[in-house]
Every structure is written in C-alpha cells, then in structure tokens.
UniProtKB/TrEMBL annotation:
Coiled coil: none annotated. GO terms for molecular function: enoyl-CoA hydratase activity; long-chain (3S)-3-hydroxyacyl-CoA dehydrogenase (NAD+) activity; NAD+ binding. It comes from the Bacteria. InterPro entries: 3-OHacyl-CoA_DH_NAD-bd, 3HC_DH_C, 6-PGluconate_DH-like_C_sf, ClpP/crotonase-like_dom_sf, Enoyl-CoA_hydra/iso, FA_oxidation_alpha_subunit, NAD(P)-bd_dom_sf. Pathway: Lipid metabolism; butanoate metabolism; Lipid metabolism; fatty acid beta-oxidation. This is 3-hydroxyacyl-CoA dehydrogenase. One of its GO terms (biological process) is fatty acid beta-oxidation. It catalyses: a (3S)-3-hydroxyacyl-CoA + NAD(+) = a 3-oxoacyl-CoA + NADH + H(+). It comes from Dactylosporangium siamense. Belongs to the 3-hydroxyacyl-CoA dehydrogenase family. It holds the Pfam family 3HCDH_N. CDD domains: crotonase-like. Residues 314-486 form the 3-hydroxyacyl-CoA dehydrogenase NAD binding domain.
Length: 700
C-alpha cells in the first residue's frame, strides 16, 4: 500500500506490516518511511474494528537500521525547530501505534539498532530471530546522539533508570538476542521461520494488550527520584558518569542521563518532550557531526579492501613476542594455518600460549580448532608453502634483513612479504629481499585482537598488486586498513610521537604532572599522556632519537628522558617504574619525585593551552603528512587517528578537528600562531593549511 511498508491482511484479520525500502539495502527512518508510517497508522485506526492485531517485520536482512545518518549529519542549529518537530511527529506516530487498542508485535528478523529498536519498543511484544549475528541496541551514543524517537523514555519505563542507562543507553552496547532477552528488552527468541507464527499466537492470546506503563498504577522498576531511597543514590549518577568519561567533552552521555532522570519524574507525554529537546541539542551541535563524519570516514576506509579473491591459507609469523603471538592468534582465528617461528621452539610455544590464554576466556569460539592451526617452530624449513609472511622480530634492521633472507626462498615463490615494524622505513627493509615489489608494511596495533586498525605501508618498490593483496589480508582479518606511503614512523607513530612529545615537553618546562595528565584526559584522550608514555617505555623515544642521528632536533624533553632512565632508573611500566609507580605490577600513583625534580612552582600554562598543545601538535603533524604524501586521504587520517592512536573520538578525527575548530580553518590558524608565539615554532601553520584556508576549503 505504500512504497516502504507492505500491508498484508490474512484470514485471521492480523495485518502484517513488512518494511522494505525499495531505495536502500536497509530500512532507515528517512522521510519516505515516516510519511508511509503515517499513512499506515491512519489506515490501522480507520480499520481497527475489523483487525485483530498487527505484526511489524522487515523484508531486509536486518530488521531496521535506524536513523538516517546522511540527513542527521548535516543539520545545523538554525534547523533546531524542524528537528524537534520531526522527532515529536515520529513519536506521536509510534504512540498511536501502541495505543491502537489492538496487540502489536514486532517480529524482529534481523538486527534492530537505534530507530529499529525504538520501533520495536513501541510494539507490545518483541520476538527476535535466534541468530547470533542479530544485534539489538542503541548505538546512538557512539555517534554523539541519543535515541530521540522514544528510546530513552521507553527503556527507562521498562527497565528502570539504572538498568536502562547501564545496559543499553550510556555505552551503546549491541546485545545478542539471548542477552537482550536477559536484559528484558525483548520477550522471545525463536527460529527465524517461526517468528510470524509466534507473533500471531501471542496476538491470539493477548487480544487486549497494552504497554505495561499504560496500566494504571504502573511503577518504574527500581524507583524514581520522587522516592527517598532512590533520590539518595541519585548524586552518584553524574559522579559515576564523570569518572567513566574522565572529564572528556562528550555531550551525549550527559544528555541521555538528564533525559532519563528528568523523564522518569513526569508523565509519558512530557517525558517525550524532554527527550526531544535533549535530542535536538545533540543533533544540531558540532560533536555529533564530527562523530557521524568519522563513522562515514570509517566506512570509506573499510571499503578500500583489496580485490584479490583468493584468501591467504598459510602464514609464517616471524617472531613470537608480544606482537607476533597476537598476530598469530588473529590469523588463526580468521582461518589461516599459522607457522609461528621464533629462535627456539620453546619461545614459539610460549607465543602460542598467548592464543590459548585468550581462547580460554572465549568459550563461544571453537578454541581447539583455532589453536590446532598454530604450529610453533624454530626451523625455517617448516615455512615451506606459506603464501604470506608477517615479520615481528625486534625493531632492528639487520635482524629483520636476516630473518627475511632466511625464509624468502623457502616460502611460496609469490608469497606476500610483510613487516610489522612501527618505525623503520619499509623501503630500507625491502632492500634485504630479492622480490622488493612483494614487500609491504603491515603495521598492527597492540593489543592486536582488540585494535581494529592496520596501517598498510607502501614502500618505494611495492607493487600495486602487492598493496591490493595486503588489503586482502586486512579484510580477511576483519580489520580496517589505512594506506600510507613510506616515511619514518609512517603516519600513526609519527603523529602519536608529537602527542607524547608535547606531554614530555610540558613536564620538562616544569608543569605539574597531575595537571598534564588531567589536560590529556579532559581533552578526550583515552589514556593520559604520561601513563601512555610509560606503556610505550621511555627508551622508545631515545631509540628513535639515536636512529635519527644528526638529523634530530634536540628538545628539552631529551634530557628529561635521559634523567628518568639513567639517573632514576625509571624506564616505564615494563621496567617496573616510570612516571608512575607500579607496586605489584599495577599502575598506582604518579611518582612523587616528579614534583621534586621537574616541577617549577612559577610555571603557569593555562589548562586549555595544555590541551590544545597536544591536540594541535597532532593535527599540524597530520597536515604535514598529507602535504608530504605520506597520507593520501583525509579519511585515512581521521580513521587512523581515532582507531589507531587514540585521538579523541569527539573530534571526528585529527583533520576534522581542524575543520570544526571555532572559526574553521582561519580560527585554527590564528590559534596555531598564538601557540607558536608562546611555545615554539613547531606550532606555525604549515603551507598546505594556509593554502586551504585562503581558498576557503576544508579537509574533506
Ligand atoms: P618482542 O620483543 O616482544 O618480540 C620479538 C620476538 O622476536 C622475540 O620473541 C624474539 O625472540 C623474536 N626473535 C628475535 N630474533 C628472531 C629470529 N631470528 N627469528 C625469529 N624470531 C626472532 O617485540 P614486539 O613488541 O612483539 O615487537 C615486534 C615488532 O613489532 C617490532 O618491529 C616492533 O616495532 C613492532 N611493533 C610493536 C608494537 C608494540 O606495541 N609493541 C606495535 C606495533 C609494531
């Protein structure tokens, strides 16, 4: 009857509404759907007396994908009234559906995320396909938004404030059907081909169904702020949230919390209004735009996936240390046979144990099968037939040359040769092999099984075919690639080095260490800068400095690092002591010696300068990477910075940070010059930035 919603009425007088947007591969809350929903609701109301119930389902692989991000990403503050009105309009349609006076059941055949779950929540009963690929949840918060079509209001009323916040709203969890059932978000999990029968059976048994919260006397589970016992706990909510966000400037969790708590104290219609206002504030703000953009950039990067059809079957992982062991695990998990080679079989066995440990914690994976794919060895002859080599031995060019020389004639004659080096030029390493065209950088991030990014590095001699095959490896491992050209530190190591470098410089200038740590956390970095430096170890910047030789520009941070290592014996976490203390191996407080030896009481760097020195240092270095051709796309910079090196997600990525800075590119340039005048020439805006600003362009 409409373009996006099919109307089928059976002999049982149940109307089955099948959502099937002809214009897209998934159903979304776009204008066409909302208009069709209104037509359908009008007709349901008109024909209500002849109908026994309604089933809502979908003809797509997923049930419903949620909001129309294309549209939401482009809404400015001047459209606030329209956004609010359309959010309220959609809510009124869903409210009319749930107060139709007939039972309405959602037959959730596939994932119901965001708007999809909101639609399902407006039904009286939810039956979900028993398929572990199905995801139920509200990912809005990860895009800087909140579910603005009744999602906050209904989950709070169904689950209670605390449960709704913790299990679905604040962290954007995607729940598998069994978990959604356990959480009380859905009512039944059933085989996909039984969904319709189950829905109809429920309708037959519940002809007078209404929502629980529409029954007189209904109480929100767990209580509301109107009750003394609940009110006494209320101050803990914002405190917990602040702790979790570590002071980072994410507005969505704050608005979700406010909408949930305020909405629980009023009637349903007022709660919808409150939710609508908080939603509008987020949609029209800058941070949601940044985060939605990052989502699209991610898709763009993920689409650069290599065209080779033959998956890799047998990989030689050279080096079974921290990285090699973890790379072996992800390769085995992706179905490859893995030869894990170290200098002794014992060392290689230890590397395999890493996989055993991870798998022991994941009973839902076929652990034994995965483990059986990993063969530890010390003998290069065992690598015969490998079509892929991933090297992860110590960061030493001579050693890397040696291990490639040892294996290159043993593995398959066209095997792809990859190095996981984080700092050495790929072209330099390629010098050590005869097939330089097949040599490519494949830079993983630690912990490899959790970090989604792989930086693929093209050396001077790397062929397009090899690059394509390397992207194929990343696709096979289900990770996201960025492609960069060869240069010392590539993109990620080079840019993160400017972040840690700025933290170290501030410490060397005499800024109090706790302030530096707070500045980085409150800027939105996932780890405080000195804590991160401890993880990376202080010997790393020293090694890099030595590798540069005469080309290194000395900084006051050099002496600070030397003193920390040589005078105080504090090289970082792995050495048992660094900027922090590690009693029993666990990070505790900042080392009090920092105050005594480095802090200078008269030094006063404004807090916002501390934050922006770190953010600007990374953004400016990224512009240089783009200008030098190390980066070839803005998407790679934004995705790589968020997924690989912890650039704050609220910014939308390291180059989007410049676009969205107050005053756009000219505003960013003015501020760069201010920072340059105060803190050093490294903040002078590079030529590419000036050119773009002059031409009125952005980084897109
Ligand atoms: P690691 O010290 O934990 O492991 C290196 C392993 O290589 C050791 O087990 C060692 O026994 C083995 N090895 C040495 N000589 C060998 C040989 N001839 N044949 C086979 N194995 C040999 O080091 P790691 O942290 O795993 O780093 C390995 C590589 O990965 C380095 O190039 C490093 O720059 C890079 N990388 C590290 C990280 C990280 O976070 N640690 C991240 C990305 C890339």
């Amino acid at each position: 009857m409409t373009d996006t919603i099919r109307w089928d009425r059976g002999d049982d007088a149940v109307v089955v509404l099948t959502i099937d947007d002809p214009a897209r591969s998934a159903n979304t809350m776009n204008a066409a759907f909302v208009a069709d929903l209104e037509t359908v609701v009008d007709r349901l109301e008109a024909e209500k007396d002849t109908i026994t119930g309604v089933v809502v389902t979908s003809a797509k692989k997923t049930f419903f994908a949620g909001g129309d991000l294309d549209r939401l990403g482009g809404i400015g503050p001047d459209q606030a009234a329209d956004v609010y009105a359309s959010s309220m309009h959609l809510k009124s349609l869903l409210r009319r559906l749930e107060t139709l006076g007939r039972p309405v059941v959602a037959a959730v055949n596939g994932s119901a995320l965001g708007g999809g779950l909101e639609l399902a929540l407006a039904c009286h009963h939810r039956v979900v396909a028993d398929d572990p690929r199905v995801e139920i949840g509200f990912p809005e918060v990860t895009l800087g938004l909140l579910p603005g079509a009744g999602g906050v209001v209904r989950t709070v009323r169904l689950l209670g404030i605390a449960q709704a916040l913790l299990t679905v709203l604040l962290r954007g969890q995607r729940l598998r059907p069994a978990k959604a059932l356990e959480a009380g978000l859905v009512h039944q999990v059933a085989p996909r081909d039984e969904l319709l029968d189950r829905a109809k059976a429920w309708i037959a048994e519940n002809p007078n169904a209404v929502q629980p919260y529409d029954v007189k006397g209904y109480r929100i589970p767990g209580g509301t702020p109107a009750q003394a016992s609940f009110a006494a706990n209320l101050p803990a909510f914002p405190a917990t949230l602040r702790k979790e966000l570590k002071g980072a400037p994410y507005p969505a969790p704050r608005n979700i919390l406010a909408a949930a708590v305020e909405g629980a104290q009023v009637d349903l219609a007022t709660a919808f209004t409150i939710e609508g206002r908080y939603f509008t504030e987020l949609v029209t703000g800058q941070i949601a735009k940044n985060m939605i953009k990052a989502f699209f950039f991610d898709l763009q990067a993920a689409n650069a996936r290599g065209t080779n059809a033959t998956p890799f079957a047998k990989v030689a992982v050279l080096g079974a240390g921290m990285m090699g062991a973890a790379i072996a695990y992800v390769c085995a998990k992706a179905g490859m046979q893995v030869l894990l080679k170290d200098v002794t079989v014992e060392a290689a066995e230890r590397g395999k144990q890493y996989s055993a440990k991870i798998l022991a914690k994941k009973p839902f994976l076929p652990g034994e099968e995965i483990l059986a794919r990993i063969t530890p060895t010390a003998d290069p002859a065992d690598l015969a037939g490998c079509d892929l080599v991933i090297e992860a031995v110590f960061e030493d060019p001579a050693l890397k040359h040696k291990v490639f020389a040892e294996v290159q004639d043993v593995v398959a004659p066209d095997a792809l040769l990859c190095s996981n080096t984080s700092t050495l030029p790929i072209s330099l390493l390629a010098d050590g092999v005869t097939r330089q065209q097949d040599f490519v950088g494949l830079h993983f991030f630690s912990p490899v099984d959790k970090m989604p990014l792989v930086e693929v590095i093209k050396g001077a001699a790397t062929s397009d075919a090899a690059l394509d095959r390397a992207l194929g490896v990343v696709r096979q491992l289900k990770k996201t690639p960025i492609v960069v050209n060869d240069s010392r530190g590539f993109f990620t190591s080079r840019v993160i080095g400017t972040f840690t470098g700025e933290g170290l410089l501030m410490l060397a200038e005499g800024v109090a260490a706790p302030s530096i740590e707070q500045a980085s956390l409150q800027a939105g970095y996932p780890a405080a800068v000195l804590a991160l430096m401890d993880e990376l170890t202080l010997t790393l910047p020293r090694k890099i400095r030595l590798a540069y030789g005469d080309a290194w520009t000395p900084t006051p941070a050099d002496a600070l690092i030397d003193r920390m290592i040589d005078e105080f014996g504090r090289p970082g976490r792995s050495g048992g002591a660094g900027f922090y203390e590690y009693p029993g191996g666990k990070r505790d407080r900042l080392w009090p010696g920092l105050r005594e030896h480095f802090a200078k009481p008269g030094v006063d760097v404004p807090f916002v300068d501390m934050q922006e020195r770190m953010l600007f240092a990374e953004a400016l270095e990224s512009v240089k990477c783009l200008d030098e051709g190390v980066l070839t796309s803005v998407a790679d910079a934004n995705v790589g910075s968020i997924l690989g090196i912890g650039f704050p997600g609220w910014t939308g990525g390291v180059l989007q940070y410049i676009n969205q800075y107050d005053g756009g590119l000219p505003g960013f340039i003015a501020r760069s010059r201010e920072l340059a005048a105060r803190y050093g020439a490294r903040f002078e805006p590079p030529a590419l930035l000036l050119r773009k600003a002059e031409q009125g362009e952005q980084f897109v």
